[in-house]
Amino acid sequence: MISIMLQWLDIFDAAPVRKVAKGGPVFRQGDRVLSMYLVRSGTVALERPMTDGIALTLHIANADMALAEASLFADTYHCDAVARTDAEIASLPRATFLAEIRDYPDAALSLIETHAKEVQAQRTRIEILRLRRVAERLDAWLDLYGEPAKGEWINVANQIGVSAPALYRELAKRRD
């Protein structure tokens, strides 16, 4: 029985989960959109292959984050979804997910709230990426989020758009 105060994550409670190994695809650009996805564990990046052979990271989804929800209203995916770590992905048919959202306004509102927060975070990321120096980007990120947990610096490098070696060089300068 579905609760009356359904949150959008609750829609996935009985959804099947599949494991995707690090580097494996959840879907590829051009695939038909048939499902809505929720990252249960791990990290999945939405990447758009560019003409120069480099993949542009559009979004990084972690546990309890939707994956490519904007594609719910498209025929095909406009990017690849690639596991950055081993991941577990829950999926529901698109029609099932949309029917649940229509039937449970609280779920729809919680989805809108989640997306509003993600838009704010993306706007902040754009502001950080506009800064020229690694030091400026790192300072801006640290001002917003504080020091990351042990082992998470690589994720900071991804979020501020610098290579891991560049970030580690900056961190080494700060320790000196």
From TrEMBL:
Domain Cyclic nucleotide-binding: 10-97
RNA-binding as UniProt keyword: no
UniProt KW Hydrolase keyword: no
CDD domains in the cross-refs: CAP_ED
Pfam families registered for this protein in UniProt: cNMP_binding (PF00027)
This protein's UniProt keywords: Plasmid
Record-linked SMART domains: cNMP
Stated name of the protein: Cyclic nucleotide-binding domain-containing protein
Taxonomic source organism: Roseobacter fucihabitans
